[in-house]
Amino acid sequence: MDLQGLDSYQGGPGCDFNEHVLHKTILVGDSGVGKTSLLVQFDQGKFIPGSFSATVGIGFTNKVVTVDGARVKLQIWDTAGQERFRSVTHAYYRDAQALLLLYDITNKSSFDNIRAWLTEIHEYAQRDVVIVLLGNKADVSSERVIRREDGETLAREYGVPFMETSAKTGMNVELAFLAIARELKHRAGQHAKEPSFQIRDYLESQKKRASCCSFV
Ligand SMILES: Nc1nc2c(ncn2[C@@H]2O[C@H](COP(=O)(O)OP(=O)(O)OP(=O)(O)O)[C@@H](O)[C@H]2O)c(=O)[nH]1
Protein backbone atom coordinates (compact mmCIF):
# COMPACT_ATOMS: atom_id res chain seq x y z
CA MET A 1 0.00 0.00 0.00
CA ASP A 2 1.28 3.46 -0.85
CA LEU A 3 1.89 5.24 2.43
CA GLN A 4 2.12 8.62 0.76
CA GLY A 5 -1.52 8.25 -0.24
CA LEU A 6 -2.83 8.18 3.30
CA ASP A 7 -4.11 11.62 4.23
CA SER A 8 -3.64 11.14 7.97
CA TYR A 9 -0.23 9.61 7.67
CA GLN A 10 1.86 11.52 10.16
CA GLY A 11 5.41 10.31 9.81
CA GLY A 12 8.49 12.11 8.65
CA PRO A 13 10.68 14.98 9.72
CA GLY A 14 8.96 18.00 11.22
CA CYS A 15 6.44 15.98 13.13
CA ASP A 16 5.98 17.77 16.46
CA PHE A 17 4.84 14.73 18.32
CA ASN A 18 7.75 14.34 20.67
CA GLU A 19 6.86 15.89 24.01
CA HIS A 20 7.42 12.57 25.80
CA VAL A 21 8.91 9.22 25.08
CA LEU A 22 7.62 7.49 22.00
CA HIS A 23 7.45 3.74 22.21
CA LYS A 24 8.71 2.37 18.94
CA THR A 25 6.59 -0.45 17.56
CA ILE A 26 7.21 -2.14 14.22
CA LEU A 27 4.83 -4.07 11.98
CA VAL A 28 6.58 -6.92 10.19
CA GLY A 29 5.63 -9.89 8.06
CA ASP A 30 5.45 -10.96 4.43
CA SER A 31 4.25 -8.63 1.73
CA GLY A 32 0.46 -8.55 1.51
CA VAL A 33 -0.36 -9.91 4.97
CA GLY A 34 -2.07 -6.64 5.88
CA LYS A 35 0.43 -4.58 7.88
CA THR A 36 -0.55 -1.23 6.35
CA SER A 37 -4.23 -2.13 6.53
CA LEU A 38 -3.92 -3.03 10.20
CA LEU A 39 -2.29 0.29 10.94
CA VAL A 40 -4.89 2.23 8.96
CA GLN A 41 -7.67 0.41 10.78
CA PHE A 42 -6.11 1.22 14.14
CA ASP A 43 -5.29 4.81 13.27
CA GLN A 44 -8.35 5.80 11.26
CA GLY A 45 -10.89 3.09 12.01
CA LYS A 46 -11.34 2.25 8.37
CA PHE A 47 -10.39 -0.34 5.80
CA ILE A 48 -9.39 0.68 2.31
CA PRO A 49 -10.48 -2.09 -0.03
CA GLY A 50 -9.19 -2.48 -3.52
CA SER A 51 -6.13 -3.56 -5.34
CA PHE A 52 -3.02 -4.26 -3.34
CA SER A 53 -0.14 -1.82 -3.62
CA ALA A 54 2.99 -2.94 -1.79
CA THR A 55 4.65 -0.59 0.69
CA VAL A 56 7.90 0.89 -0.53
CA GLY A 57 10.48 1.38 2.21
CA ILE A 58 9.30 2.30 5.67
CA GLY A 59 7.31 5.02 7.41
CA PHE A 60 5.69 5.73 10.72
CA THR A 61 2.51 6.94 12.36
CA ASN A 62 2.32 8.38 15.87
CA LYS A 63 -0.63 7.38 17.95
CA VAL A 64 -1.59 8.10 21.55
CA VAL A 65 -3.54 5.48 23.43
CA THR A 66 -4.89 5.63 26.96
CA VAL A 67 -3.97 2.85 29.34
CA ASP A 68 -5.49 2.99 32.82
CA GLY A 69 -5.90 6.74 32.46
CA ALA A 70 -2.32 7.31 31.34
CA ARG A 71 -1.33 8.45 27.85
CA VAL A 72 1.03 6.11 26.07
CA LYS A 73 2.60 7.29 22.83
CA LEU A 74 3.26 4.71 20.21
CA GLN A 75 5.39 5.38 17.18
CA ILE A 76 4.25 2.65 14.83
CA TRP A 77 6.53 1.81 11.94
CA ASP A 78 5.05 0.12 8.89
CA THR A 79 7.65 -1.83 6.97
CA ALA A 80 7.69 -3.17 3.44
CA GLY A 81 7.31 -6.94 3.48
CA GLN A 82 9.07 -7.49 0.17
CA GLU A 83 12.42 -9.22 0.35
CA ARG A 84 14.23 -6.43 -1.49
CA PHE A 85 13.59 -4.00 1.37
CA ARG A 86 14.69 -6.38 4.09
CA SER A 87 18.15 -4.87 4.64
CA VAL A 88 16.56 -1.45 5.10
CA THR A 89 14.05 -2.63 7.67
CA HIS A 90 16.62 -4.61 9.67
CA ALA A 91 18.22 -1.34 10.65
CA TYR A 92 15.03 -0.28 12.38
CA TYR A 93 14.70 -3.38 14.54
CA ARG A 94 17.43 -2.36 16.95
CA ASP A 95 15.50 0.50 18.56
CA ALA A 96 12.15 -1.25 18.52
CA GLN A 97 10.47 -1.91 21.84
CA ALA A 98 7.67 -3.95 20.31
CA LEU A 99 7.00 -5.91 17.15
CA LEU A 100 3.68 -6.99 15.71
CA LEU A 101 4.48 -9.99 13.51
CA LEU A 102 1.75 -10.79 10.99
CA TYR A 103 0.86 -13.67 8.75
CA ASP A 104 -2.20 -14.07 6.54
CA ILE A 105 -4.50 -16.97 7.50
CA THR A 106 -5.28 -17.44 3.77
CA ASN A 107 -1.63 -17.66 2.75
CA LYS A 108 0.38 -20.69 3.87
CA SER A 109 3.79 -19.36 2.90
CA SER A 110 3.26 -16.24 5.00
CA PHE A 111 2.69 -18.56 7.96
CA ASP A 112 5.63 -20.81 7.11
CA ASN A 113 7.85 -17.73 6.91
CA ILE A 114 7.08 -16.72 10.49
CA ARG A 115 9.98 -18.86 11.73
CA ALA A 116 12.36 -16.99 9.44
CA TRP A 117 10.94 -13.68 10.63
CA LEU A 118 11.48 -14.70 14.24
CA THR A 119 15.05 -15.71 13.44
CA GLU A 120 15.65 -12.27 11.91
CA ILE A 121 14.02 -10.56 14.86
CA HIS A 122 16.22 -12.43 17.30
CA GLU A 123 19.25 -11.50 15.24
CA TYR A 124 18.56 -7.79 14.84
CA ALA A 125 16.18 -6.71 17.62
CA GLN A 126 16.80 -6.22 21.32
CA ARG A 127 16.53 -9.35 23.42
CA ASP A 128 13.61 -8.06 25.48
CA VAL A 129 11.56 -6.74 22.56
CA VAL A 130 7.83 -7.38 23.00
CA ILE A 131 6.55 -9.64 20.21
CA VAL A 132 2.91 -10.39 19.42
CA LEU A 133 2.02 -12.84 16.64
CA LEU A 134 -1.09 -11.96 14.61
CA GLY A 135 -2.98 -14.16 12.15
CA ASN A 136 -4.62 -11.51 9.98
CA LYS A 137 -7.53 -11.63 7.48
CA ALA A 138 -9.60 -13.72 9.87
CA ASP A 139 -12.71 -12.38 8.14
CA VAL A 140 -11.92 -14.41 5.01
CA SER A 141 -13.10 -17.72 6.46
CA SER A 142 -13.83 -19.32 3.07
CA GLU A 143 -10.16 -19.06 2.06
CA ARG A 144 -8.63 -19.96 5.38
CA VAL A 145 -5.69 -22.38 5.08
CA ILE A 146 -4.10 -21.86 8.50
CA ARG A 147 -6.15 -23.06 11.45
CA ARG A 148 -6.26 -20.95 14.55
CA GLU A 149 -4.75 -23.85 16.48
CA ASP A 150 -1.72 -23.80 14.18
CA GLY A 151 -1.12 -20.17 15.07
CA GLU A 152 -1.55 -20.93 18.75
CA THR A 153 0.87 -23.86 18.59
CA LEU A 154 3.54 -21.83 16.82
CA ALA A 155 3.12 -18.95 19.27
CA ARG A 156 3.42 -21.33 22.22
CA GLU A 157 6.58 -22.82 20.73
CA TYR A 158 8.21 -19.39 20.63
CA GLY A 159 6.64 -18.14 23.84
CA VAL A 160 4.85 -15.19 22.27
CA PRO A 161 1.22 -14.05 22.65
CA PHE A 162 -1.04 -14.70 19.69
CA MET A 163 -4.40 -13.66 18.32
CA GLU A 164 -6.23 -13.56 15.05
CA THR A 165 -7.18 -10.17 13.63
CA SER A 166 -9.04 -8.62 10.76
CA ALA A 167 -7.91 -5.28 9.42
CA LYS A 168 -11.14 -5.31 7.43
CA THR A 169 -13.66 -5.69 10.28
CA GLY A 170 -11.37 -4.33 12.98
CA MET A 171 -11.54 -7.55 14.99
CA ASN A 172 -8.89 -7.51 17.73
CA VAL A 173 -6.96 -4.68 16.06
CA GLU A 174 -7.27 -2.25 18.94
CA LEU A 175 -6.66 -5.03 21.43
CA ALA A 176 -3.33 -5.89 19.79
CA PHE A 177 -2.02 -2.33 20.01
CA LEU A 178 -3.48 -1.72 23.46
CA ALA A 179 -1.83 -4.84 24.81
CA ILE A 180 1.50 -3.61 23.52
CA ALA A 181 0.92 -0.12 24.94
CA ARG A 182 0.02 -1.63 28.30
CA GLU A 183 3.14 -3.77 28.34
CA LEU A 184 5.41 -0.88 27.32
CA LYS A 185 3.82 1.44 29.85
CA HIS A 186 4.45 -1.08 32.53
CA ARG A 187 8.04 -1.54 31.43
CA ALA A 188 8.61 2.18 31.38
CA GLY A 189 7.89 2.08 35.10
CA GLN A 190 5.26 4.76 35.03
CA HIS A 191 3.45 2.83 37.72
CA ALA A 192 6.24 0.90 39.31
CA LYS A 193 4.14 -0.06 42.30
CA GLU A 194 1.60 -1.89 40.18
CA PRO A 195 1.76 -5.66 40.20
CA SER A 196 3.77 -7.14 37.36
CA PHE A 197 1.92 -7.00 34.04
CA GLN A 198 2.09 -9.89 31.65
CA ILE A 199 0.95 -9.26 28.11
CA ARG A 200 -0.07 -12.88 27.63
CA ASP A 201 -2.23 -12.90 30.78
CA TYR A 202 -3.79 -9.62 29.75
CA LEU A 203 -4.76 -10.95 26.34
CA GLU A 204 -6.14 -14.15 27.84
CA SER A 205 -8.28 -12.19 30.30
CA GLN A 206 -9.57 -9.98 27.49
CA LYS A 207 -10.47 -13.04 25.46
CA LYS A 208 -12.37 -14.58 28.38
CA ARG A 209 -14.27 -11.34 28.93
CA ALA A 210 -15.44 -11.21 25.33
CA SER A 211 -19.03 -12.39 25.23
CA CYS A 212 -18.90 -13.76 21.76
CA CYS A 213 -16.50 -15.21 19.28
CA SER A 214 -14.64 -12.14 18.14
CA PHE A 215 -11.60 -13.04 20.21
CA VAL A 216 -9.61 -16.10 19.38
N1 LIG B 1 -10.27 -9.36 3.67
C1 LIG B 1 -9.20 -8.76 4.19
N2 LIG B 1 -8.28 -8.19 3.37
C2 LIG B 1 -7.20 -7.60 3.94
C3 LIG B 1 -7.01 -7.58 5.34
N3 LIG B 1 -5.85 -6.93 5.59
C4 LIG B 1 -5.36 -6.56 4.41
N4 LIG B 1 -6.17 -6.97 3.41
C5 LIG B 1 -5.94 -6.78 1.96
O1 LIG B 1 -4.72 -7.43 1.66
C6 LIG B 1 -3.97 -6.68 0.69
C7 LIG B 1 -2.58 -6.34 1.27
O2 LIG B 1 -2.75 -5.48 2.38
P1 LIG B 1 -1.60 -4.45 2.85
O3 LIG B 1 -2.06 -3.85 4.12
O4 LIG B 1 -1.21 -3.53 1.77
O5 LIG B 1 -0.40 -5.49 3.10
P2 LIG B 1 1.07 -5.21 3.65
O6 LIG B 1 1.41 -6.28 4.61
O7 LIG B 1 1.18 -3.80 4.16
O8 LIG B 1 1.96 -5.41 2.33
P3 LIG B 1 3.44 -4.79 2.02
O9 LIG B 1 3.29 -3.32 2.06
O10 LIG B 1 3.82 -5.28 0.65
O11 LIG B 1 4.39 -5.33 3.04
C8 LIG B 1 -4.81 -5.44 0.37
O12 LIG B 1 -5.54 -5.69 -0.80
C9 LIG B 1 -5.73 -5.32 1.57
O13 LIG B 1 -6.96 -4.70 1.23
C10 LIG B 1 -7.98 -8.20 6.18
O14 LIG B 1 -7.90 -8.27 7.42
N5 LIG B 1 -9.05 -8.78 5.54
Automatic annotation (TrEMBL):
<keyword id="KW-0378">Hydrolase</keyword>
<comment type="similarity">
    <text>Belongs to the small GTPase superfamily. Rab family.</text>
</comment>
<keyword id="KW-0479">Metal-binding</keyword>
<dbReference type="GO" id="GO:0003925">
    <property type="term" value="F:G protein activity"/>
</dbReference>
<dbReference type="Pfam" id="PF00071">
    <property type="entry name" value="Ras"/>
</dbReference>
<protein>
    <recommendedName>
        <fullName>small monomeric GTPase</fullName>
        <ecNumber>3.6.5.2</ecNumber>
    </recommendedName>
</protein>
<keyword id="KW-0653">Protein transport</keyword>
<dbReference type="GO" id="GO:0046872">
    <property type="term" value="F:metal ion binding"/>
</dbReference>
<dbReference type="GO" id="GO:0005525">
    <property type="term" value="F:GTP binding"/>
</dbReference>
<dbReference type="InterPro" id="IPR005225">
    <property type="entry name" value="Small_GTP-bd"/>
</dbReference>
<dbReference type="InterPro" id="IPR027417">
    <property type="entry name" value="P-loop_NTPase"/>
</dbReference>
<dbReference type="GO" id="GO:0015031">
    <property type="term" value="P:protein transport"/>
</dbReference>
<keyword id="KW-0547">Nucleotide-binding</keyword>
<dbReference type="InterPro" id="IPR001806">
    <property type="entry name" value="Small_GTPase"/>
</dbReference>
<keyword id="KW-0342">GTP-binding</keyword>
<keyword id="KW-0460">Magnesium</keyword>
<keyword id="KW-0813">Transport</keyword>
<keyword id="KW-0449">Lipoprotein</keyword>
<keyword id="KW-0636">Prenylation</keyword>
